[in-house]
Amino acid sequence: TNHVESALCFNVGQGHIPLFVIKHFGLKNIYLTDRNLLSLKTSQHNLAKYQIESKAEHSVFPSGEGNFDFIAGTIPEKQAQGVYETFIQSINADLRPGAKAVIASTSTTIARIEDTLKSYFEILSSEKEKGNVALIMRK
Question: What pTM was computed for the model?
């Protein structure tokens, strides 16, 4: 599905990824989740400058609600395998069937989770640059 009505961004930083997602899909609001409360508040503040509404959840993992057409975010590096598995399961639980996700991390992190990702998602594209990888996936 290419039509996106609801999107989630996780590990949002200062809000660059949510802003890109909003503009690319023409959305009016977005759902944010981050374990770093300062990042979450900064991202919300920066999005508000563009009259973009955002709902935010202070959480390590995405919400698991299954309501999103699109998810984007960065997977933290140097975590235990169980943390990665929970991240991937949360992303899977958040996506509607056929929906897409874009995740990014270091090449090492992506290599560690690739088999788990493939058990939940179809990898549509993989872009590698300077030790980082971005994956486009479909549920």
Answer: 0.88
